Amino acid sequence: MNKLFNKSGKLFSIWWILVMVIVTIGVVISASFFYSSYGDIRSLEAEALSIKINDCISNGAIINSELLTGCGIEPSFFETNSNYFVMVSIDDLKYKFGNNAFETDCEISKKVLRANNYPKCVEKEMNFNGKNIKILTGSNNFGRKNDLI
Amino acid sequence: MAKEDNLLDNIVFLVISLVFFSILVLYVINISSGAFVLEQTYAKQLALFLDNSKPNTIISIEFTKAFELAKENNIAPEDIVKINNNYVIVQLTNSESYSYPYFSRLEVVNINYNEENDKTYLNLNIGSKDE
After folding, report:
1. Which residue, A85, A130, B27, B128, is most buried by CB atoms nearer than 10 A?
2. What is the residue-averaged pLDDT of chain A?
3. Residues B39 and B78 grouped into a single domain
4. Same domain, B92 and B48
5. Residue B50 sits in the same domain as residue B98
6. pTM given for the model
7. Are B45 and B23 part of one and the same domain?
8. Residue A112 and residue A101: Cα distance in Å, rounded?
C-alpha cells in the first residue's frame, strides 16, 4: 500500500488529485450553466408569432396600430422594453410593436455566427391583394426562476 | 509480497477512480432529470402550446414524472401548474418555481389531471379572453 500515496507519485500523486479537482470543477460548472438555461425556445416563439400574424393578415385583418389585438395577441407584452418585437412593413409604412431596438439587433444577429444575448428573429415576406408585406418578429425571452423561500 | 502489494495498490486506485467518476456521472444524471429542468421544460412547452393554440382547444400532455416529483415534495395538484396573467408557472418543489410567458390572448379555463395506463396526463381547457 505504500505506493498508493507515494510522494514520487506512481498512483495517487498530487497531479492525479489536481486532475480530479479540475475535472470536478469543470463538470459541475458546465452542467450548472447548461441546465440553468435549458431549452432555448426564443426562435420557436418568434416563428409562432410570425405564423400568427401571417395567418391573421391572410384572413383579412386590417394592418394598423391595433393589429396585435385583432390577431389575438396580448398587447401588454409588446411595450417599449418588452422581450418581443413585431414589425409589419407594407409599402412605405412600418408598424412596430414591442421593443424597437430589436429591429437593429435582428440585423446584427443575422450577420454574426453566435449572438446568444441578441433576440432570435424570423423574417417573412408575403403577398396579399397584390401588396408586398414584410413581417419581422423577434423574441428575447428567457423565462424566470422564482424563489419561494 | 511486493507483487501482491502492487496489485492491491492498483485495485484500490482503480476502485477509487471508478467511484469518483461514477459520482460525477450520477451528479450529471441527477441535475439533468431534476426539478428545475422539469419545471423549465413543462413551462416552456405549455407556453409554446398556448402561443400556437386557438380558443376552445384542450391541451393534453404526459406529465407522470413531474406529477410524481411534485407529490414527493407535497405540492398540491392545484399548485403544480398555474396560469397567471399570461404566465405559465410550474412548481415541483417547495423552494422554487419557474414561469414563462405566452403572448396569445387566451385564458386557461380549467386545469386537471387524469390517470391512464399508469401515466398521468395534464389537461388544459383553453378559452379566449375576447369572448
Report:
1. A85
2. 86
3. yes
4. yes
5. yes
6. 0.80
7. no
8. 17
B96 and B81 in a single domain? The answer is yes
For B12, the domain range is 1-32
CB B24 within 8 A of CB A27: yes
* pLDDT per position as a tens digit, B84-126: 999 999 999 998 899 999 999 999 999 999 999 999 999 999 9
**Interface contact flag, A4 B103, Cβ < 8 Å:** no
Q: Which residues of B touch A (CB under 8 A)?
A: 5-6, 8-10, 12-13, 16, 20, 24, 27-28, 31-32, 34, 36-37, 40-41, 43-44, 47-48, 51-52, 86, 89, 91, 94-101, 103-106, 128-130
- pLDDT confidence tier of residue A114, bands split at 50, 70 and 90: confident
Q: Are residues B38 and B28 in the same domain?
A: no
Instruction: Please report the DSSP string for B26-84 in residue order.
Output: HHHHHHHTSHHHHHHHHHHHHHHHHHT--SS-EEEEE-HHHHHHHHHTT--HHHHEEEE
On chain A, the residues whose CB falls within 8 A of the CB of B2 are none
Residue with the bigger pLDDT between A101 and A113: it is A101
If one counts the domains in chain B, the total is 2
